[in-house]
Amino acid sequence: xxxxxxxxxxxxxxxxxxxxxxxxxxxxxxxxxxxxxxxxxxxxxxxxxxxxxxxxxxxxxxxxxxxxxxxxxxxxxxxxxxxxxxxxxxxxxxxxxxxxxxxxxxxxxxxxxxxxxxxxxxxxxxxxxxxxxxxxxx
Length: 138
What we know:
By secondary structure, the chain is mainly alpha-helical.
């Protein structure tokens, strides 16, 4: 939470808590697959028991979320903050991956794992936590 390199969602939650502006490059329509940490831990635990050695597994939510919708949900759950659309910095669009979401069929088939926390609930939990404990993270 000290800077944006740890977690884009976490950083945006901080900006919203501080009632600052979240900048969205371009139109914010690129899709992502955001997953809550508790679901990641559960997936790893399941894989340690039921995963096949040497296999590669995707961990995700199947919840395709537009970047701008993630920002809107943060502002809504935090109750403060603003958003601003801004053009991509020069040559930065070459780094943008476009839409990304994980195919989780293999991990579900092998372990029965499925995520439980959707974006709205995950952001709410994160915002509540950082509001309560922000002195340890800022």
